[in-house]
Amino acid sequence: MKELSKYNIDIYGLEDKQYDYDMESGDAFFQELDQDLIEHGHFKTHVVLNKSATMIQLNFHTQGIVTLICDRSLEPFEEPIDSNERIILKFGDHNEELTEEIEIINRNTTRINVARYLFDFIALSLPVKKIHPDLRTQEETDDEDETEGILVYSSEDTAETESEEEEKIDPRWEALKKLKGNN
Q1: 33: exposed, middle or buried (C-beta count within 10 Å: 0-12, 13-18, 19+)?
Q2: pLDDT per residue as tens digits for the range 75-115
Q3: In the predicted model, what is the mean pLDDT of residues 119-130?
Q4: What is the pLDDT of residue 139?
Q5: How many helices (H) and strands (E) does the chain have?
Q6: Which residue of 56, 80, 81, 132 could cross-link 89, Cys pair, CB 3.0 to 4.6 Å?
Q7: Alpha helical stretches, state H, the chain
């Protein structure tokens, strides 16, 4: 928990203006969090805190590198991170997450810890498919091949199917079909 305490920001008594914070961390950050996605990495984050009477706006600019395991070859590789994200904390009577970007925090809160936000932003900036850079050109050509296989249906086939269906009409519906033909 000592590692995560570096991400505490005391908000009690802050004037209504802009504040800047620089944070840097490595493997210890990822090991302190209860997660299995990232084990190793190093990043720097610049946080701009804008405080007003009713809310706190936090802008995060994170740059760094994390070590991931390739989904295809199971080899470790380094993935660069560069993310710009924002969180708005509105003062209220209770703690509640309204959206991904807006949270309500108790107006008596004296300190916020931004470690969870940093990890979420890093995790969201990772690619869905974790592919080693040496294999990415092969992956791109595989994706192109998949898009070339488009199915095309002929209108002649559908016309034949409709005529076959008309022949197989349930006799109970014959009376309704006759009524439809009279209109």
Answers
A1: middle
A2: 899 999 999 999 999 999 988 889 889 999 988 888 999 99
A3: 89
A4: 47
A5: 5, 8
A6: 56
A7: 27-32, 115-125, 136-148, 155-167, 174-182
Taking the alpha carbons of 130, 135, 136, 141 in that order, is the dihedral positive or negative?
A: negative
CB-facing half-sphere around the CA of 17: CA atoms within 13 A: 5
- Residue that has been written with the tokens 């600019």 in this structure: 61
The count of C-alpha atoms lying within 13 angstroms of the C-alpha of 153, restricted to the half-sphere facing its C-beta, is: 6
Question: Which residue type occupies 120?
Answer: D
HSE-CB at 60 with a 13 A cutoff on CA atoms is 27
DSSP assignment string, 63-109: EEEEEEE-TTT--EEEEEEEEEEEEEEEEESS-EE-SSSEEEEETT-
Place of tokens 């490595």: 26
Distance (Å, whole) CA 121 – CA 183: 64
The single residue listed with the structure tokens 């008309």 is 166
> What is the CA angle 139-141-144, rounded to 5?
115
Alpha-carbon gap, residue 77 to 73, rounded angstroms:
10
Prediction pTM value: 0.68
- Cα separation, 143 vs 137, whole angstroms: 10
